[in-house]
Each structure stands twice: as structure tokens, then as C-alpha cells.
Design brief:
alpha+beta; Rossmann fold; 3 domains; five-stranded antiparallel beta sheet
Length: 307
């Protein structure tokens, strides 16, 4: 890298925090990544991203931006567009892929076009979902453009009444058929798919299960047949390509064992997987022999502002 070849450590700005519902997760991810990058030999400045981000980065003039933001604004193409305008290389996916992945309806359309299996879904008004079942139960209600299982409601088959969604839910939500089965996930680094992890929880793999200690258990690698591993890896790579992702992404699945290979359903792709102590992507990289500092170093080396 240019900074390293001249004997001067490259300056990396780690973006974290931000205004989204996933602020606390982002702060945790950012601190972990900043520490790892320092171990890898970079000069690092931690930036709690706010409305003055353009001014802050212009004054700082970093060589690379490590985007550890999560959720809307930091993960949906907005910050990516700002970094493109400033001509600053940044990690993870570009503007279009980030925007498509965050919009679950558009992402599903891209997956269907690529021949990937997804469940049926529709968009409905929050008040309409409160009044009556808009789809035959069981189904799931979630924001169309949030991540980390923020605001997820499961409506079970025997539910007599529709879900009473919180006022914090957006005016329009996604309603999708519930996919039963085991929770599996696979990370893609560039063109390489890592092992498959099974996520075991008591109930739904929601925000608390993802980020609270003891909220879930990861089996890495998953104890599943080799053909299921191969299918998940293939689907994860194809989902990565269908959205036009670069850098790191992670795709989540449900697998209904009773249906064998036909029981693998793609849920969604995360273009900026969590990088906290309980996160899946670093765990899968470690399983592949890639330490956390080396993973972060690879992401900085892969950074771009024009692809």
C-alpha cells in the first residue's frame, strides 16, 4: 500500500455510531475494528459520524475510510455517496449495492432475477397490518429498510389477532411468509465464501439475540450435510454478485431439513456485517485462518471509491 511503502502508516478513518437505530452496535463494531487496524499497523482516527461528516473528513483527509456504520444512512448508500463525492476510498459495497440490499423488496427482486429462492412478500401500511391479517399466517412483519432484526414481529399460525405494531415502525412495512427451519449464514469475502454457521437461539434471532451476551449460540462450522454447505456458499456468492457487492457481505438462510436441498431459503444479504465480539463474519474468517486484524487489513486494501 502507498502509505506503508513510504514508511508512513496509512491514515484510516473509522466511521461509527451515526443516527440510526443500530447506533450502539455500530459503536461496538467501530471500536473493535479501530483496535484491530492499529494492531495491523495503521494510524486510526475514530469518527462518530454526524451531520458535519463531510467537513470532518475534508479536514482529516484520510487515505481510506473504514465504514463501520450500520442501519439507515450509513449502510443504505447515503454515506457511500458522500464518500464518492469526496473521492475517499471506503470499505464495503458501493452506492447502488448498499441501497438495494437495504431495501428488502428490491433486494428480493434482484435475488429472484438471479434464480435464488426467496419467500413471498408484500408491502403494506402499518395501520392496515394492525387492523387485519394481510397475509395468511404464519408470517413475519419487519421494516423494509432496517437491519439487525430491528422491529421484527412474528405472527404464528394460530394467531387470532393481527400484530399490534409499535408506533416506531415505519408507515409502510414488509410482510413475508414465515420460513421455518434452522438459521444458517455464510460470509463472502471478495469472491470467497467462508464456512456456514448455524445460529441457535431460544425463539427468534432478533436484535437482542444478535448482540447481547448469551443471546444466541453459533455453531461454526455448522453441523449440516456437505451439500447444504455447498448450496449456502453458492447462494451467498450469487447474492453478493446479484446486488453488485464488493468487500465483505453476509447472507442469511433458513433450512427446512425435511425438504433437503430444496429447503434452503435465502432471507437477506447484509452488505456491512457486524464486527463486534459476537459477530458472525469475523468468526467465520477465523475459522478460515484469517485473524481479525488481517480481515480488517484486507478490507482496507480492498477499499475503493469508484466501483
Amino acid at each position: 500500500m502507498a502509505g506503508e511503502s513510504s514508511g508512513t502508516p496509512q491514515l484510516v478513518a473509522v466511521l461509527m455510531g451515526g443516527p440510526s437505530a443500530e447506533r450502539e452496535v455500530s459503536l461496538s463494531s467501530g471500536r473493535e475494528c479501530a483496535q484491530a487496524l492499529r494492531q495491523a499497523g495503521y494510524d486510526v482516527i475514530e469518527v462518530d459520524a454526524g451531520p458535519d461528516l463531510s467537513e470532518v473528513l475534508t479536514k482529516m483527509n484520510p487515505d481510506t475510510v473504514f465504514n463501520a456504520l450500520h442501519g439507515r444512512w450509513g449502510e443504505d448508500g447515503c454515506v457511500q455517496g458522500l464518500l464518492e463525492w469526496l473521492k475517499l476510498p471506503y470499505t464495503h459495497s458501493g452506492v447502488l449495492a448498499s441501497a438495494m440490499a437495504m431495501d428488502k423488496t428490491r433486494a428480493k427482486a434482484a435475488f429472484r432475477a438471479a434464480g435464488l429462492p426467496v419467500v413471498e412478500s408484500l408491502l403494506a401500511g402499518r395501520d392496515a397490518v394492525r387492523r387485519a391479517h394481510v397475509m395468511q399466517a404464519p408470517y413475519v412483519v419487519k421494516p423494509n429498510n432496517e437491519g439487525s432484526s430491528v422491529g421484527v414481529y412474528i405472527v404464528h399460525e394460530n394467531a387470532n389477532t393481527p400484530p399490534q405494531l409499535s408506533d416506531e415502525m415505519p408507515d409502510v412495512v414488509m410482510v413475508e411468509t414465515y420460513a421455518p427451519g434452522r438459521e444458517l449464514t455464510c460470509t463472502v469475502m471478495g469472491e470467497r465464501a467462508f464456512c456456514v454457521t448455524e445460529i441457535i437461539t431460544e425463539g427468534w434471532y432478533d436484535y437482542a439475540a444478535k448482540y447481547n451476551e448469551g443471546g444466541s449460540r453459533h455453531v461454526c462450522p455448522a453441523d449440516v450435510p456437505e451439500d447444504i454447505v455447498a448450496i449456502c456458499q453458492d447462494y451467498a456468492r450469487r447474492a453478493h454478485d446479484a446486488l453488485g457487492c464488493r468487500g465483505l457481505s453476509r447472507t442469511d438462510f433458513r433450512w427446512n431439513e425435511a425438504l433437503g436441498p430444496d429447503g434452503v431459503i435465502l432471507l437477506e444479504t447484509n452488505t456491512q456485517p457486524g464486527m463486534t465480539p459476537t459477530s458472525l463474519a469475523p468468526e467465520q474468517a477465523q475459522q478460515a485462518g484469517i485473524s481479525f486484524p488481517d480481515l480488517c487489513r484486507w478490507m482496507v486494501e480492498d477499499a475503493s471509491c469508484d466501483r
